[in-house]
């Protein structure tokens, strides 16, 4: 029993990355690099705006005291939408501001593709902020 308590990991201690023969190795390698990482919650809120109303996205970001996230949005000649988040959103709470103004279907489809791209980029939570939804009648 005494031997088990020596090798057990606690939640307060850093988690070792490399384990050899069932036991955790020391926290530093011979070269002086850390072989473990601390387990701490990193909560991030990130705000992005679609092309339907970027001014509203800027106003919300200013009110929250954050910068609007950098996202590249393009429409190919065949009408398909391209979305690329220019910064890592892994593990972040992502809010996407997009209202469905004319052309309604294009704005809605852009929002859905932005949500899908955020999910593929491993965002923790994705929230669509829609000040006006045209199909609500």
Description of the structure:
With 137 residues, this protein is α/β, with parallel strands linked by helices. 25% of the residues lie in helices and 24% in strands. It has 3 helices and 9 strands. The protein has a 3-stranded parallel β-sheet with strand order 5-8-9, sandwiched between helices. The chain has a two-stranded antiparallel ribbon with strand order 1-4. A two-stranded antiparallel sheet has the order 2-3. Strand 6 and strand 7 (81-85) form a beta hairpin. The longest helix has 17 residues, at 104-120. It is globular. The model is unreliable at 16-29 and 33-40 (pLDDT under 50).
Q: Averaged pLDDT, please? A: 80
Spatial order of the strands forming the largest sheet: 5-8-9
Order of helices and strands: HEEEEEHEEEHE
Tell me the helix content.
10-25%
How many strands in all? 9
- Show unreliable segments: 16-29, 33-40
Number of helices: 3
Structural class computed from helices and strand pairing: alpha/beta
